[in-house]
What does this fold into?
Amino acid sequence: MFKSRILASCTLVLLVLPGLALPSFALADGKTALTYGYDQNGYRSFAFKGDIDLSSDVLLHLDHLHAESSGIVSLRQSGIGLTAYATDWLSGHYRYSETNDTVFLVRGNEGDLSVALNSLWNSELRTTLGGGYAGFIYANANPPDTGGGRSLSQSRRSYSLSQDLTSSLGAYVSFDQYAYEVDLVDLIILLIRRARIAPISAGAFLSFPDITRAAGLTWKATDKLTFDLSSSKTTTILEQSLISSRLGVDYQLSDTWNAGVAVTRSTTSDLLRNTGVVVQPATDTTFNEVRASWYF
It folds into this structure.
């Protein structure tokens, strides 16, 4: 989310950690990408993403993520979105998503605007300011037959700034803040329940974030080879923390094919009750990704 929020440490969008944009290459009518991810604890993920040019100013996005933990399905997420370029310096993005992590069914709407500020001072080094708002509804993925399932809403405000330092080096920072329309006691009950069922992994969703801060660098070493390094820290409303560091490498194999690999190191702190009893122990996970993209 969700970055997410709800956060996804698989992008992925973007899952999804907040991260740097992939290097731009000439496209004909769109792009498809397949990503396989895994960690040392039996977590596996399979992700598809497609971008299709509907016109010179509008891009359609489709994505789907399927994840398993020790062979058992632990997460499914599907999304559809649009990006529209109003001018050379202004663009907008919208995405609708549905996520099922076997405990919660989450429906979300996300929107953001991006402004290229460097046009104000006629600089060739791009400066981009972004802001967005998202709303998510959590419902019980397995509601009782009586229909008494709970639901809660989450909102997210996002702010980002990216700056080209040179023609080949860029920097990125972002800040996400979350809010919930639910009594805190009920939220704690839901969080503890989730922690017993769905293990937090480098590729899984972190429950109920409060604030996420992220920063990164992208370096285009050659016309074909690009590196990106990013780090993020998320704290939840119960003061559990997730710290992730990611190194990604992308290589343009041809005009139509691109390949990439990435390694993410993620650590989480203990999740505690008010009494100090550990509900979920701290974790230390390394998540690996392999991706292939086709431009058409």
